[in-house]
Design goal:
Blueprint (H helix, E strand, L loop, with lengths): L11 E7 L23 E2 L29 E9 L2 E8 L3 E3 L15 E5 L7 E4 L1 E3 L2 E5 L35 E5 L2 E7 L7 E8 L3 E2 L3 E4 L11 E6 L6 H12 L4 E4 L41 H14 L4 E3 L10 H9 L11 H7 L17 E5 L2 E5 L26 H12 L8 E5 L16 H13 L4 E4 L5 E4 L2 E2 L2 E2 L5 E5 L18 H7 L20 E5 L3 E7 L4 E8 L9 E6 L32 H8 L6 E7 L1
Parallel strand pairs: 2-26, 15-16, 16-17, 19-20, 20-21, 21-25
Antiparallel strand pairs: 1-30, 3-4, 4-11, 5-10, 6-7, 6-12, 8-11, 9-10, 12-13, 12-14, 15-27, 18-19, 22-25, 22-26, 23-24, 27-28, 28-29
The structure holds 2-acetamido-2-deoxy-beta-D-glucopyranose (8 copies).
One 2-acetamido-2-deoxy-beta-D-glucopyranose binds next to loops.
Catalytic activity: a phosphate monoester + H2O = an alcohol + phosphate
GO molecular function, one term: metal ion binding
Family: Belongs to the metallophosphoesterase superfamily. Purple acid phosphatase family.
Length: about 650
Amino acid sequence: MATHLATVFALAAFQVVSAQPYVNYVAPGAPTSFYVPDTPQISVPEVRFPSGSQDLPLDQEPLQRAVSGFQPEQVNLIYISPTEVTVTWNTGDYQDGQTSNFKPVSPDSVCHTVAYGSSPKSLTQTARGTGTYYSVNYYYSGFSTKNLGCNTPTTCAAGQCDTYNLPPLPNCGPLNNYTSGIIHHTPVMNLQPATTYYYQVGCNATGLSGIYSFRTAQALKPTWTPYKIAMWADVGQTMNSSVTLEHMVEADADISILIGDLTYADDYLPDGHIQPDNYSSQVPTTDAPFGGQPAVVHEPRWDSWYRLMEPLFSSTPWISAAGNHEIESQLEYDRSVSNARGNASPVDLFKAWDTRYGIAGPAKYTGDQSVPSYFSTNLPGIHLVVLNAYIGNGTSGETEYYIGSGSPLKGDAQYEWLEEDLTTNFNRTLTPWLMVIFHPPWYNSYVGGYYAHECFRQNYESLFYQFGVDIVMHGHIHAYERTDKVYNYAINPCGPYYMTIGDAGNIEGLTAYFVNATTCQRALKAGGDACAPTTCTPDMYNQPVWSAYREPSFGHIVLNVINSTAIEMTFHRNQDGENVISDNTIFRRYPQYCTNQAQPTTQVTPQANAPVGAPAGAPGKDAANSANTATNTANTATTSSG
Ligand SMILES: *[C@@H]1O[C@H](CO)[C@@H](O)[C@H](O)[C@H]1NC(C)=O
Ligand SMILES: *[C@@H]1O[C@H](CO)[C@@H](O)[C@H](O)[C@H]1NC(C)=O
Ligand SMILES: *[C@@H]1O[C@H](CO)[C@@H](O)[C@H](O)[C@H]1NC(C)=O
Ligand SMILES: *[C@@H]1O[C@H](CO)[C@@H](O)[C@H](O)[C@H]1NC(C)=O
Ligand SMILES: *[C@@H]1O[C@H](CO)[C@@H](O)[C@H](O)[C@H]1NC(C)=O
Ligand SMILES: *[C@@H]1O[C@H](CO)[C@@H](O)[C@H](O)[C@H]1NC(C)=O
Ligand SMILES: *[C@@H]1O[C@H](CO)[C@@H](O)[C@H](O)[C@H]1NC(C)=O
Ligand SMILES: *[C@@H]1O[C@H](CO)[C@@H](O)[C@H](O)[C@H]1NC(C)=O
């Protein structure tokens, strides 16, 4: 996370807020308590480790560049399907500084070849792809915190305004330019499912990589053999990140999923230093500096991060969602929207993530390729939807800091796409599980995550519920939390489970503070967005009814996808090693009792009765409210200004 900004622009935006209609999806005649929430609720006392460690040094392996010329490096495999991966790698070093000294980057001067086969001795098949590169402008290297306000729009003196009616940027100094090396994307298609392949990238003329291997996922079928998915978020490149990485490799999963916040390159000043040097102290992460300041980034941290990740990514196909640290607002973009907020095209946001991860390259996912940051794909037994929480026409308490990015609202392009995807691309027989991932959590009871994306929740949650989403996974908050099945803050046997796993160990450290009587008001101020309540009430002082387990520790999770109604989830915290489990549960589906989880999805007339199976008295105040307003579908509008 870390969304602090010294310069905050005034914002005014409408959030269309509709009360959540309570629809009873419990089938008539279902047993009264087919679903029982976890008891007791567990809240592991806030762990007091040193909060986090600094990033690993850039001038030592594994972060340092270990090849020369156009030898391949940063090799990774993007999951497309059980029969296809996109192999991605870099050749040539980045260039950084004044553009006048740059050598041109010619992506096609180096081949995009992958040689592969079923044994390391016979890489007899070849695939060819495409090459690309990207560049960003950022502030000069003498940049310091006192200049953070240098792009604040001020009154424009006659004759000195640019096309956006803004004055020249005072005190910002000349801009530097980072231009990446060549980024290769090569789709390898028509693979056999559940098969081990060996591969090598590059060409004889300019250099070949070593030989790597990976296993394809099983074929997409209504039944499958149990398999593992390893998941993490908010990774970074610290000593802690590298411990989590080792455990992710040891998990030996078929697929790995990273739910946003990859490199934390935007936590750096342009000269590569962190300032203030404050992350190792026990300050709440909401006070952590940087992250989100337009044109303040140390882009070489992307190259170092991919080097660190290579042992996992070259052997396990991965899927990525975009987080707030991937936004990396560009300076020109920032200036253009200062006067015309919300009207600018989001073309330059997510530039590094988009170019390197390369969804636009393979274009094999289903999604809007003009903003190629939300998509869906199928894993064995699972339809996976990846959303981007930082685009759209709304604002939220946090996202307003990201100039030009918004928050998803009903009616946005992403919403329309999601509805269409779930209607046409989701087949419950083929993929019984429906899982959604996006970076920041809706259900989270830590300071910083509390009601922080409430507008997004209020706009999207009923769509999730209608289509019977089973599991929703998040990162962003640097701690672990798992909920019971919940809808609109009430335990609901036909609602999804939610998890926050933003605890892979990045430089910003742990989020250690639970919301309680002391921290509640600060939590709403730090996180709460335009749709959040403004004042705390006593029911907010304890672990919320929907929160089953929470623990501020670094770690990762593994999903053992057992069958059409059971997925085993295990949480592995760093201090114990990969083989020790500190939390585990079985996620279940109830297609026989929940009509929103049956195939085909049946529309049920809204009813204003209480959810069957919820324990008497368990839902708190919010739940009671939602039951009372069950039939109220009137829209109300609120205005926010920040
Ligand atoms: C950075 O430099 C490259 C190479 O000279 C150039 O193509 C690119 O347009 C520059 N990028 C920006 C954002 O100005
Ligand atoms: C490299 O050269 C060897 C020997 O001529 C050839 O078999 C192989 O296919 C070449 N590899 C690539 C990637 O071009
Ligand atoms: C992070 O890594 C440091 C250095 O190895 C260690 O001392 C610390 O306990 C770790 N923090 C957590 C929360 O695991
Ligand atoms: C570290 O953070 C604290 C609290 O935000 C602040 O008071 C202090 O000045 C910072 N230290 C440095 C070295 O910047
Ligand atoms: C914002 O709303 C307009 C009009 O409904 C829509 O065309 C556009 O796609 C929306 N923007 C995003 C980023 O969804
Ligand atoms: C859904 O998947 C099943 C199993 O693969 C298949 O038999 C069926 O035709 C699919 N339904 C549709 C509408 O594509
Ligand atoms: C709430 O949490 C804070 C931060 O951990 C702690 O200092 C405080 O004692 C707690 N207050 C209550 C009432 O539990
Ligand atoms: C799925 O696996 C769970 C847990 O092992 C088991 O209880 C259940 O009977 C299985 N269901 C089916 C349909 O095989």
